[in-house]
Amino acid sequence: MEFVLRLCSIGLGGFIGAILRYLVSGWVQDRSGSIAFPFGTLSVNLIGCFVIGLLTFLVETRSFFGVETRTFILIGLLGSFTTFSTFGNETLVLIRGGRMDMAALYAGVHVIVGVAMVWLGRLAASGIWR
Asked: The whole model's pTM is what?
């Protein structure tokens, strides 16, 4: 039962985070007036990174939030708002642990292989649905 409640908490946080992402990203993109640069996506990624940094510091140094609240906010809400915040946090954990090599590998693979996988997905789709 505890597992099901945790999943529901993540789902509720994800629901809220997805809506916030849509609203914040759209608002910023509209205000930017740009059609050439994704300011909206950039803004939610940077906001998410700031918030996860703030909250993980409070969790680590002040034992802020219980496990349930952290699950709701960090996994559900922020995970849906932007997974980039998790990427940033995990990279920083590697750096703080003295693993610059692993941090560079982790970041490099995400960026380079991530973009390559988007390209491969598009190639696959164009081959399947001509």
From this structure: 0.83
